[in-house]
Amino acid sequence: MIAYILKSVGQAILVLVVVAALAFSMFRFIGDPVANMAGQEASQQDRRELAERLGLNDPVPIQFARFLANAAFGEFGMSYRQGRKVSALIAERMPATVELAVLSALLATGFGTLLGVYTAIRRNSWGAHIVMGISLIGVSLPTFLIGIGLIYLFAVELKWLPSFGRGETVKLGWWTTGLLTPSGRASLIMPVLTLGFFQLTLIMRLVRAQMLETLRTDYVKFARARGLPESRIQFRHALRNTLVPVVTIAGLQLGSVIAFAIITESVFQWPGLGALFVQAVQFVDIPVMAAYLMFVAVVFVVVNLIVDLTYVLLDPRLKSSTAVVGGGK
Amino acid sequence: MARFVDTFVSAIVAGALISGLATTSAEARAIKWARSGDALTLDPHAQNEGPTHALSHHIYEPLVLRDHTGKAIPALAESWALTADPLVWEFKLRKGVTFHDGTAFTADDVIYSFERARQPTSDMKSLLSSVDTMTKVDDHTLRIKTKGPNPIFPSNLNDLFVMSKAWTEKNNAGKVQDFKAKEENFSVRNANGTGPFILVSREPDVKTVMKRNDAYWGKGQVPLDITEITYLPIKADATRVAALLSGEVDFVQDVPVQDIQKLSSDPKLQVNVGPENRSIFFGMNVGDKELKTSDVKGKNPFAEKKVRAAMNIIINRSTIQRVTMRGQSLPTGIIAPPGVNGYTKDLDVIPAADAAKAKTLMAEAGYPDGFSVTLHCPNDRYINDEAICQAAVGQLATIGIKVNLVSQSKSIHFPLIQRNPPETDFFLLGWGVPTFDSHYVFTFLYHTRTDKEGGWNATRYSNAEIDKLTVGLTQETDLTKRNQTIAQIWKALQDEVIYIPIHIQTLAYAMKPDLEIPVDISNQPKLKFAKVKK
After folding, report:
1. Is residue A41 scored above 50 in pLDDT?
2. A-chain residues within 8 Å CB-CB of B379?
3. In chain B, where are the structural domains located?
4. Hey, how many other C-beta atoms are within 10 angstroms of the C-beta on B478?
5. Which segments within chain A are labelled E, that is strand?
6. DSSP symbols for B7-30
7. B262/chain A closest Cα distance in angstroms
């Protein structure tokens, strides 16, 4: 087990370095930060001096090496756009994104699994047809359209919910949360729905398909023949066996929800990392872009590691197969 | 539509009435102000950028301010004049002004701030490049000696904000942004100015709160009806407009063109429209022997004045205004916006649409079948920039000019123009004139490219005579003579058709009906002038 984890960590570091290298080779196609930073009146000489000060005149491999050396100490430099420390910016923005992503993921996996099971077991009921119909909207409508639709309905027409921002937040050490104030909670509703809706329908459809598959297998038929209660068959035996692919997908989705909440954050002016990244790209704020891409890579690597470990818990065969190989039988 | 025209006209008329007049305030209230982007920093010398200055103008103040029509009005300087020595300007500073922390404002603060703005890492330094020495005569008299005669020097000071020397030194914020520093500068998120509003809190990209400065020197001279400003950047157009419709914000500065009509017809809202100090135009490589991106080899079609004249005719500004801009632009025949010294109605001539004449000109120039060329266009800088280029591509095709359109982000587009030599043959550009003087246009867009001049002139146009006259403008202190030279330069340049002017951008501000916030020509609304109606 320890060897397995060490191997995963080694792979993770390799992935991070490769991501950083790829990111750096791409930055120069995004544009020239000097064009955004130097004002209209700056002379050719001013621009050259600014590029020099930023170290942009050095060859890309040297810039990359410098970046790696600093990143190893958690140092990402100063944002070109705001003149503030990138690490401080990321720390300031992270709570908003994590709060949004975790709530969306909980919503998606919780309701996704419940509705998936429901539509599988009662697949010919009216309720199941309606749920399946609505879920089509979730998989087919783009996120920004759902967001704008919600804003129009609940903010502009009904005036129940705020159309943008996080509302009042409470500071807990360096963390900020909107869960402790009424306006913070109200501000969370629409972004969480928007971000979680696609994942919810995806997980629901996946659970349903897996469940229908499992309910047809021999061991379920055998369990029925043995006269086990239907609920026990469905939840204890069938559901557990549908969960391996669901955990894989849900895990990867959590990674992408944290990393790519960009659209939802932009639509709702949510002060998270996604919005920060969009602004960084427009301004060619290389330190922020680099730090964000590293953050995304870390999130994916960690989530994958956790998913790998969860498999072992869910599917005892994985444990025994390693034991078989290790045992050399 | 009639309502819109009325608003438009009244916005212009109201301009003359509001500026600087003492008014009796009717009501007072707090407002929430939303626009698409946040100020980059509160450090007043770190970034020479519109939205950054727009926020700073509420907290900090310059010596000389521009009102919303572009007229220079006194701020921290009560008056200014050239002394007997044509190199020395004397500024009489306002007395009894205090910074938000209570310290008194004196000439030392101005000298300190201007020195700070001249540091190599400051983005404002080019505006003070003509300064030789600064001398304090007494606490409220300042003399600035320039390196050569500079008749329009005060025009450079409109966005040069004065910080408190004591406060800045105490907080170790004397050095303008340094990207190699380990810590952020104190002045990036804290501020202590003399302005009409005091910073209460700032979360960059989220919210900035300012409350009215009750000790403001201008109390009684300006309305000062707004008691508190909550400044909210909301990037997505639809969300920003939704926030206004739902009543969560009171004033939206960047109203998307497509929403102006809808918002104007809403009885619970009011939309003010006015021209911005910014023209949009095409530029062409008129200087090279051959165009890199054209199928014509061995010669440069843009070097032919007849080709440029034909393009000037065939590009239909009224179609672009009607279709692309949904009526929200002012078609123009000159790249200097109205209000800039040197602009005249006589120069602003849009050639009549005459396809036959354009075709004849092309044939006479030796290109009856046209030619191909690449047009570079930004897609995130000006209002509908990419759509303007698309419209022009279709129009140019009717005289055989086959345009390959490349539209990309401003971060990629601007370097094509700025690099020496430029890397574009045909491009779209917009230009604002912060000094409100034609010299600014000549020196950046028409002067031969050197290390100092012609920084945005990607046309390769080089005319020794124009260069000499342009440089001469900086030495001439007789304003009448100077204006004659400006007229002479414009006449020659308009005849050359180096650029093809398209239009002047217009701005739209939407607000609750009890607010009166006129459109600011520099797009930096100063809310001390805003009025709250009953």
Report:
1. yes
2. none
3. 2-269+512-532, 276-506
4. 11
5. 170-172, 175-177
6. HHHHHHHHHHHHTT--------EE
7. 14
Return the H-helix or E-strand segment holding B80.
strand B77-82
Give the integer Cα–Cα distance in Å for B257 and B260: 6
- Chain centroid to Cα A104, Å, comes to 10
- pLDDT averaged over every residue in chain B: 91
What CA–CA distance (Å, rounded) separates A184 from B180?
Answer: 37
What is the C-alpha separation between B212 and B199, in angstroms, rounded? 9
Residue in A41, A53, A84, A92 to test binding to B, most B beta-carbons within 10 Å: A41
CA distances from A48 to A24, A54, A177, B415 (A): 21, 10, 43, 12
Interface confidence (ipTM) of the complex: 0.84
A82 shares contact with chain B (CB less than 8 Å): yes
Side-chain-side CA neighbours of B218 within 13 Å: the count stands at 27
Considering only CB atoms, which chain B residues are within 8 Å of A285? none
- Give every CB contact of residue B239 below 8 A, 6+ residues apart in sequence: A148, A151, A163, A164, A267, A268, A269
- Closest C-alpha to A148, from A127, A134, A163: A163
Q: Does A36 touch chain B (CB under 8 A)?
A: yes
Cβ contacts of A6 within 8 Å, gap of 6 or more: none
Portion of chain B with pLDDT greater than 70, in percent? 95
Residue B421 burial (10 A CB sphere; 0-12, 13-18, 19+): exposed
Q: At what angle are helices A60-71 and A2-30 packed, to 10 degrees?
A: 140
Residues of A in contact with B156 (CB under 8 A): none
* Interatomic CA distance for residues B371 and B360, integer angstroms: 15
Which class in CATH covers the domain with range B2-269+512-532? alpha beta
Q: Do B181 and A162 touch (CB under 8 A)?
A: no
Q: CB-based contact (8 Å) between B258 and chain A?
A: no
pTM over 0.80: yes
Distance, CA of B300 to CA of B298 (rounded, Å): 7
DSSP E strands, B151-262 = 197-203, 207-212, 226-233, 251-252
Ramachandran assignment for B172, one of left (phi > 0), alpha (psi -120 to 50 degrees), beta (any other): left
| B276-506 maps to CATH 3.10.105.10 | yes
Contact predicate B236/A269, CB 8 Å: yes
- Quick one: chain A helix, strand, coil %, rounded to 5? 75, 0, 20
Domains in chain A, start-ordered, CATH in brackets?
2-72 (no CATH), 86-328 (1.10.3720.10)
Location of structure tokens 């005249």:
B344
CB within 8 Å of B355: residues ≥ 6 apart:
B314, B398, B399
Contact B414, A35 (CB under 8 A): yes
pLDDT for the residue A319: 59
Please give the average per-residue pLDDT across B384-400, as a whole number. 96
Which helix (H) or strand (E) element contains residue B487? helix B479-496
Report the DSSP beta bridge partners of residue B531: B516
Amino acid at A201: T
| Residue B137 touches partner A, C-beta closer than 8 Å | no
What pLDDT band is residue B433 in, cutting at 50, 70 and 90?
very high
Terminus-to-terminus CA distance in chain A, angstroms? 19
Q: Identify the residue with better confidence: A250 or B289.
A: B289
CB A107 within 8 A of CB A138: no
pLDDT per residue as tens digits for the range B226-256? 999 999 999 999 999 999 999 999 999 989 9
Q: Report the run of H or E that residue B372 belongs to, with start and end.
A: strand B371-378
Q: Chain A within 8 Å of B125 (Cβ-Cβ)?
A: yes
Enter the tokens of residue A174. Answer: 């360096």
Interface list for A 133-172 with B (CB within 8 A): 148, 151-152, 155-156, 159, 162-166
Confidence (pLDDT) at A304: 81
